[in-house]
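Lab notebook, page 48
Experiment: co-folding of the full assembly
Goal: obtain a model of how the components sit together before planning crosslinking
Operator: M.T.
Materials (sequences as entered):
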Amino acid sequence: MSDSRRTAPDLDETDLALLEQVEADFDVNLETIADELDLSKSAVHYRLNKLKEEGVIQGITADVDPLALGLELTAITDVMVAHERGYSEDIGENLLALSGVEQVYYTMGDVDFVAVSRVQTRDQLNDLIDRIVAIDGVNETSSKFVLGEFENDRAVSSNLTSEAREAVLDGDGSS
Amino acid sequence: MSDSRRTAPDLDETDLALLEQVEADFDVNLETIADELDLSKSAVHYRLNKLKEEGVIQGITADVDPLALGLELTAITDVMVAHERGYSEDIGENLLALSGVEQVYYTMGDVDFVAVSRVQTRDQLNDLIDRIVAIDGVNETSSKFVLGEFENDRAVSSNLTSEAREAVLDGDGSS
DNA sequence: AATGAAATCGACCAGCA
DNA sequence: TGCTGGTCGATTTCATT
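Observation: model returned without errors.
Model output:
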């Protein structure tokens, strides 16, 4: 389960602007970013390091196009489990461990888990659903086929409501 | 809608291994990767460039921890729309445009869209759902609260079944 | 597709506001 | 604490094979 970081660091507007930049594209000169933000290269570097150390930036990664690997079929599977025990964590891990499963959410309500999967062929999809059902504790599943995706490029920082932005900037200042 | 690339490039095992590396962590020396793959730095660089040009690598980005921005509440919302027209695309865009919405899937079945959202407070969540319902064409929604996430770090390349790996490596060789 | 050399960029340091 | 400017090592680029 994601259980990242304890300390909520307070960020200023420059940090937010920087995050928006690098969350969209890190494959540029530091100088380009520096110009954009009216900062020196060193200052950008300094802030980036801090953000990494604080865990705000969890990592720098390459984004791979699933279609380029032939993963043309996407499905969303609702998973219902037998509710007796505290096995939720295990079942979540088991779901995620299945190859093809990209993301697993543990949810409140009638549905216990939502899994997003990508595969190449209908056979693989069939097989994957079989493997989900075979997990110990899984009672029932219901899958939706994904016809299209609208993606935000995962831009967390550029996707805040104005209230949310303010709340981020209102650090408690206790550092 | 994601409609990325036309040409399905054929990749070899080195490309796949390289993708797995950089998809997990790009914040390292090229030499580290080169050592890992028994290649020269230049060769690594050459292949990375090719992968970027081919669109296999869509970009290099910083991954920001939503929790660090106070986005502690995640919801998955099923959206049902009025089915008369071909407005699906518009509705998808409208959903994604709402701040707080991170990802939108267009699905087959009883549910037409699935939206994943992140916000800081219950008020923001309430407000977001109101804004979803207010979109023209949206009929009904049903939301699940997310208690936990199991994430694959979005590692597309390291998440292939053995069949899928083989299918990727069986390029048609037409380049 | 891969190499090595030349130009460029980023990481780090000491010092400063 | 956050930033500056400069240095050195690393990376990108390009001509060459």
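Interpretation: The domain at 66-145 of chain B is CATH 3.30.70.920 (Alpha-Beta Plaits).
Next step: discuss with group before ordering constructs.
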